[in-house]
Amino acid sequence: MLTAEQVLAAHKANVETLFGLTNKAFEGVEKLVELNLQVAKTALTEVADTTAAAMSVKDAQELLALQAALLQPTAEKAASYSRHVYDIASTTGAEVAKVAEGQFADAQKTFSTMVDTAAKNAPAGTENAVALVKSAVAAANNAFESVQKATKQAVEVAEANFQAATSQAVKATQTATRSAKRAAA
To answer: Which residue among 17, 67, 88, 135 is least packed, with the fewest CB closer than 10 Å?
Structure first.
């Protein structure tokens, strides 16, 4: 049986974990805000430069050349922005998952200790019930580990797909830019 001190310590640890996770989430939000402010400042400067360049265009050929010159960097910047957002999100998610895994491991240890203590103090003839509980706990732990492995594999596949899609988008934009420059020339 748990003592009042053990329950209080568990609650204190849970509150500390909650505040730690909240801080991690806010750090991720801060990074996203910083990124978005940087992007907004850069975009404002680029819009001013592009507007000035568009105002100085003398004919349609120059306009096509200006469009072609702007197309590729814009796509690359969008891909870079997406990568930064993805990195921030995946880093924050990994930190939260690490804390959750640690909490789950602690809970597993505590529960196993409780089961072992209960098994030692169980009356004679309850060995089958104790073995059943231990077996259920082991099965639950194995199921959790399997889900955890599958989730990690899914995240790895998603990361690879994201990187491949970003790379293909940038390559397609580069090809379109080259075609537009040839057409303008």
So the answer is: 135
Residues making up the chain, counted from first to last: 185
Residue 148, amino acid:
Q
pTM of the model: 0.61
Q: Are 44 and 127 in contact (CB under 8 A)?
A: no
Report how far residue 106's alpha carbon sits from residue 112's, in angstroms, rounded to the nearest whole number. 10
Q: Are 24 and 89 in contact (CB under 8 A)?
A: no
As a 3-state breakdown, the chain gives helix, strand, coil percent values, each rounded to 5, of 95, 0, 5
Mean pLDDT of 10-22: 83
Q: Which residue has the tokens 């804390």?
A: 99
In the chain the first and final C-alpha atoms are separated, in Å, by 83
Helix (H) / strand (E) containing 161: helix 127-184
- What is the structure's pLDDT at 45? 93
- As a whole number of Å, the CA-based R_g of the chain is 28
